[in-house]
Design goal:
CATH topology: Arc Repressor Mutant, subunit A
Number of strands: 0
Strand content: under 5%
CATH superfamily: PucR C-terminal helix-turn-helix domain
CATH architecture: Orthogonal Bundle
Number of helices: 7
Largest sheet: none
Distance between the termini: 42 Å
Radius of gyration: 15 Å
Number of domains: 1
Shape: globular
CATH class: Mainly Alpha
Structural class: mainly alpha
């Protein structure tokens, strides 16, 4: 149990680290801009996909989408980021980065959508 606590403390110490943010933002800025310009949910899709351990069916269920819609969105994300989301190491790295810099991997970035969800 101490090892897990030590690991959690190490990860917590990175929270807000500017270097993590600087490394992560260039990958995700295109997704944020795309979502903001088109009112889409690529960031939300990515976050849910990571939360579901790369399971497309579970991601689709959680987003109330057909799995083909999730596959399409993941393809767009891969095109825009140059990342292979089928690669477990890529997913794990993004998942850790999301834990350390949650503000960068925000689920929603469109203010209009935020206010719609609050209604």
């Amino acid at each position: 149990m101490n090892r897990l606590s030590d690991l959690r403390a190490a990860l917590d110490s990175l929270r807000g680290d500017p270097e993590v943010r600087r490394s992560l933002e260039p990958l995700l800025v295109p997704l944020r801009r795309y979502d903001a310009a088109r009112g889409t949910d690529l960031m939300l899709t990515l976050r849910r996909f990571l939360d579901e351990g790369g399971n497309i069916a579970a991601t689709a269920d959680r987003l109330f989408l057909h799995r083909n819609s999730v596959i399409y969105r993941l393809g767009r994300i891969e095109e825009m980021t140059g990342l292979d989301l089928r690669d477990r190491e890529v997913r794990e790295t993004l998942r850790m980065a999301a834990a350390v810099a949650p503000e960068v991997v925000a689920e929603r970035i469109c203010p209009e959508k935020e206010s719609q969800n609050e209604s």
